[in-house]
Structure formats: structure tokens, C-alpha cells
Amino acid sequence: MVSSHMFNITQEHEMIRQAARDFAQNEVAPIAAEFDESGDFPLETIRKMGEMGFMGIEVPEKYGGAEMDTLAYVLALEEISKADASHGTIMSVNNSLFCYAIMKFGTEEQKRKYLMPVASGQKIGAYSLTEPMSGSDAGTMRSLAKLEGDYYILNGRKSWVTSGPVADFVIVFMMTEPEKKHHGVTAFIVEADKPGFIRGKKEPKMGIRASATSEILYENYKLPVANRLGDEGMGFKIAMTVLDAGRIGIASQSLGIAEAAYEASLAYVQEREAFGKKIGQFQGISFKLADMKTRIEASRLLIYNAAMAKEKSKKTGQRYRDAKITEIYEGTSEIQRLVISRLETGLR
Ligand SMILES: Cc1cc2nc3c(=O)[nH]c(=O)nc-3n(C[C@H](O)[C@H](O)[C@H](O)COP(=O)(O)OP(=O)(O)OC[C@H]3O[C@@H](n4cnc5c(N)ncnc54)[C@H](O)[C@@H]3O)c2cc1C
């Protein structure tokens, strides 16, 4: 088991982990199966999670968040996902994709108007990059935003939007200059209750069924220039930066799911009997449990380490900028490799 001192898990971290664990087991776990079956969005518990500070864990208090670090975020998300992966997904998109994007790239006005209500859980945020014909290769998106005076006119079809059926605000990525490809993508913050914002069909899913997913269509949606997130053409960079940061959250979600599966399996093998023994006494079964536990602990080490590294990189950004040049001057790292390999092999 990973001990607290290995990762500077402070008293504050323990407190949020315990609060998330209690909330997850008392409020989320009991309703998880029912919401999984119906596919309804668990708005009531999500609002409560907002009140607990779980919907904007890294957001400064002045913008409605809990003002904690990445490790606190992964610890809480792990506990929520352990009780129900759907709640974990909704929490993850709200924190990692919506709040983080505005925290990092938004103006003061955007932070007050959009970050505050979403970080406090009063409103739901979504992130919308994917299109029916544009997934991993996001630079091929077709949705268009055309500048007309003080407004952008948005047109397009976005798919697979987590929380799409219920989101109040969406960060959407559209082409402003299609001929520039990746460099022609711009990010916007849109409000759902405006003309031209059309929620499409809700996707039926095999898992995370209470996390609603849908298409969103834009038909001549008129958006003030003040709602542009970052500069024109910066959208692709924003999209990728946000996804990079969000991946730690996805990893802690999968850790929570794995732990729940492990605990259920453990309880079953200790109770179920066959051939006069608990099935956990058969080596073939007990080895599976041992392998599960090993992988869970290895993942935990990686995830907590990644969370600490992300936190550290915020503080040591200065050294990173200084260190970078040593990979470039007097021969780049690639050239150094070339020199060494030629010297060693004597070949050119
Ligand atoms: C439940 C759910 C929720 C989602 N939520 C959101 C959301 O909130 N916001 C959002 O914007 N998007 C969301 N998505 C979309 C998700 O990000 C995309 O599904 C994902 O990026 C993959 O795109 P795709 O499905 O179009 O697959 P494709 O990009 O078409 O890929 C198809 C297959 O080809 C493989 N492939 C593609 N390119 C390469 C390559 N260069 N090398 C090797 N293999 C490759 C892929 O790995 C995959 O196996 C969601 C999707 C799902 C299923």
C-alpha cells in the first residue's frame, strides 16, 4: 500500500480524501445502480458535490473553487469514481476540461462570469472538440466561426459532448481560418440558453450511462467577441494543453474503477465456496487477485507521481526555461546522438 509520506500527502489531502470517500459511499454509491439503469443525469448529487468543493478543486477560492492542488484533485476523483464512474466523469470534465481551460486562458471577466458558477457546481460545464468526422485528428474539424462586427456567427455539428444534454456553458472549438488548419482553430465559451444552440440526440452507452453524452448543433449562433477564449488561432493549443492536464484525472478515474472491482472481487472470493473451500483458496483465483492488487498499486504510484510532477512544474517553471537551452546550443540533443553514434560505430 502506498503510504502518505511517499507523496507528501498532507493533512489537508487526507481531509479531502476522507470527505470524498464519505460522500461517495454515503451519497453516490447508494444511487449509482439506479442512475446507471435509467441513464438519468444525477443533478442533485452533482450540486451537492459542488457545495463540497469537488467541482472546482484546483480553482482559487475567489472564483468559487476549493483552491487545492492536483494531488487533492486525483485523490477526490479516485474516491468518487470508486463509488460511481458516471459521477467521476461529470466531475472530471467539469474540473479538468472546463474549469482548467478558463483558469489558464480566460480573462478576468470570463473567470467571474463562467468559472465561478461552474467551479461551485451551480452550473455545469462541458468541452467540445470532437465532430462526427473529426476525432483524434482534431485539426480536421469543419465547424465554422465567422467574425461579423462585434460577434462571431457559429455554425457546425459537434459530437460526443460529455454533459452535452445538461451543460449550461460549453467551451467549443471551431475554425476561424480553415485554410490554416490547426492554426486556424479558435476556442469560444458559449451559453446554452441562447438561440442557435441545439442539443442533439443523447448517445446510448454501455458504461458511464448516467454521464449524459450528446451532439450539439450550432445554427447561426451569435456570440459576442468577449466570449472568445484566448486569441484567434490559439484554439488548437488550448485544446491540447487542456487535454494534457486532464489525463491525470482520467487515470485516477480508472484507478477508482479498478479499486472498486478489486474490492468486490475480494469480498466474493472470501465468501463463495466450491469443492468445500472458499474459492479464494484456489491458487488460480488467488493469483488473479494478487495481479489485480499489484497493478492497482503500480498505477497509484504513477498517478500520484504525475500529480506531484504537475504541481512541481508550476513552481519550477523558471528552471525548466533555463534548462531547455542546454538541449540546443553547442549541438542539439539529436546532433549529440549523431556524434556519439558515429564515434562509436566509425560509420557515417
Ligand atoms: C463516452 C465518450 C465521451 C466523450 N466526451 C467528449 C467530450 O466531452 N468532448 C469531446 O470533444 N470529445 C469527447 N469524446 C470524443 C473522444 O475524444 C473521441 O472519441 C476520441 O478522440 C477518438 O476519436 P474518434 O472516436 O473519432 O476515433 P478516431 O479518431 O476515428 O479513431 C478510430 C481508431 O483509430 C485509431 N487511430 C486514429 N489515429 C491513429 C494514429 N495516428 N495512430 C494509431 N491509431 C490511430 C484510434 O486510436 C481509434 O482506435 C467522447 C467520446 C466518448 C466515447
CATH superfamily of one domain: Acyl-CoA dehydrogenase/oxidase, N-terminal domain
Please state the average pLDDT score: 94
Q: Separation of termini?
A: 51 Å
User: H/E element string?
Assistant: HHHHHEEEEEEEEHEEHHH
Strand order of the largest sheet: 1-4-5-8
Which stretches of 5+ consecutive residues score pLDDT under 50? Answer: none
CATH topology-level fold name of one domain: Butyryl-Coa Dehydrogenase, subunit A, domain 1
Overall 3D geometry?
globular
Oligomeric grouping of the chains? single chain
Give a quick precis of the structure.
With 348 residues, this protein is of the alpha+beta class. The protein contains 9 helices and 10 strands. It is globular.
How would you characterize the overall build of this protein?
Strand 2 and strand 3 (151-162) form a beta hairpin. The chain has a domain at 4-124: Acyl-CoA dehydrogenase/oxidase, N-terminal domain (Butyryl-Coa Dehydrogenase, subunit A, domain 1). The chain is an alpha+beta fold and 348 residues long. The chain starts with 10 loop residues before the first helix and ends with a helix. 51% of the residues lie in helices and 17% in strands. A 4-stranded mixed β-sheet has the order 1-4-5-8. It has a 4-stranded antiparallel β-sheet with strand order 2-3-7-6, with helices on one face. A two-stranded antiparallel sheet has the order 9-10. The model has no long low-confidence stretch (mean pLDDT 94). The protein is globular. The chain has helices spanning 11-38, 43-52, 70-83, 85-105, 108-119, 235-271, 283-315, 317-324, 333-345, and strands spanning 125-128, 144-148, 151-162, 169-175, 185-191, 197-202, 213-224, 228-229, 273-274, 277-278. The longest helix is centred in the last third of the chain and has 37 residues, at 235-271.
